[in-house]
Design brief:
Length: 327
Amino acid sequence: MAAVKDAVLERAVDLAREVALEIAEEPEYVGEYLGAVREAERLVSHRFACTARGYRGWAWTVTVARVPRGRTATVCEAELLPGEDAILARTWVPWSERLRPGDIGPGDVLPFRPDDPRLEPGYTPTGDPEVDEVAIDELALARVRVLSPQGRDEAAERWYRGSRGPATPGAVASAAACWSCGFLVPLQGSLGQLFAVCANAWSPDDGKVVSLDHGCGAHSETDVEPVPSEWPASDPLFDETAIDVVERAPSTAPATGGPAAAEPAATDPAPTDPAPTDPEPAEPAPVPTDPAPTDPVPGEPAPSPTEPADELTTEVTDADARPSDGA
């Protein structure tokens, strides 16, 4: 049922403006009159445009009322309300639903949640040494609260479908799974049946929880197959700082001919310098054109190899003539 027109309340525009000016920070923030709205019987709201920056579409709203058969308007409430085309903030969401991974920074502390469904009460010592040793040492339940089945299931689902599960591009392209890698550190408890921790410094997942069927290119038991290259093989390079460069020794053959040039003396020592790795062939000694000297007479000194050939011939002839004269 629509509210009945109330002339007393609808004429209280000046009273409503005075109230709007009082609640506004600046008088100029109260704009033109937008009209009255009948809320109920003997209840009317007067609206004024808000000219403050950032409040487009908002209106100052002052609600007035009167008692039955009264002739005076009374202010009930005054506030700034959004209109149909107002810019509104998003619907408020509790922090537990707004929080996302990575939102917690250094120094941030989350409020305590006593009813967290991901946790359940831990183990309370019973006094029995054997039972308490299994629960505290082996199952690690010596805490106020531990993971509940819901908490473990959510963690497993999040890890398996995350960036370190089996469906990532790196895991699909890997040659082997993490379960056979030597750098894998297994977890304890039920989560260890599906997850472990990577301990390979070269892996992109170092120090992260990975699924056993995850994989990467840093697996301990795989290798890259050699691929033939299309580039030609380059010539070997020699480092002269690592090898000794030896100059080639000069040739020992004499430059001129003679009796000694054809057959070197046996007493000459061998050269001490190492022979070159690739010596050039020595030129043969020239054959002398002069006739070979005759054998010397016993008892006479051998001719010097440096004496000329004509002198050697003369001495040999005289020696041959001496025995004939004595005869």
